[in-house]
Amino acid sequence: MDTKLKKSIAFHPQTCGQTEVVNRNVVHLLIGYCSKHPKLWDEQLHYIQHAFNQEKHSSTQTAPFEVCFGYLPKSPLDFIFGKDVAIDGHSDIDKAQNFIEEIQMIHQQVQ
């Protein structure tokens, strides 16, 4: 994969471009989300994390959560409107095999 390890300290993330981009995006999301009550940003961080991990990114056309786990996380609205349960009649082995194939396909697309 041609990766290079660059060591850095906690308060000097400039050695990692990905960390800089993620930090910048999270700061922008926090500013927008917590503009009325900026001192409560730490209580809202889990909402920002969920939104960031569920959003498809332009480079991979896939959400970070989906790349790692093979599916998108459910939001509270999915449970309210009943989108969380689908009865399809497949066995657990079929579901597991389909899940493995989906993960492999996502990883190939992202690479």
How does this model look, in words?
By secondary structure, this protein is mostly helical. The protein folds into two domains: 1-54, no CATH class; 58-111, no CATH class. The protein has helices spanning 17-33, 41-54, 64-69, 76-80, 92-110. Helix 1 packs across helix 2 (41-54).
Question: Could you provide a short overview of the structure?
Answer:
Helix content is about 55%, strand content about 0%.
Write the layout of secondary structure elements.
Blueprint: H1 17-33, H2 41-54, H3 64-69, H4 76-80, H5 92-110
Helix pairs in contact: 1-2
CA-based shape = flat
* Domains, number: 2
Radius of gyration: 18 Å
Contiguous helical run count? 5
Low-confidence stretches: none
| Structural class label | mainly alpha
Number of strands: 0
List the keywords.
single chain, 2 domains, 5 helices, about 55% helix
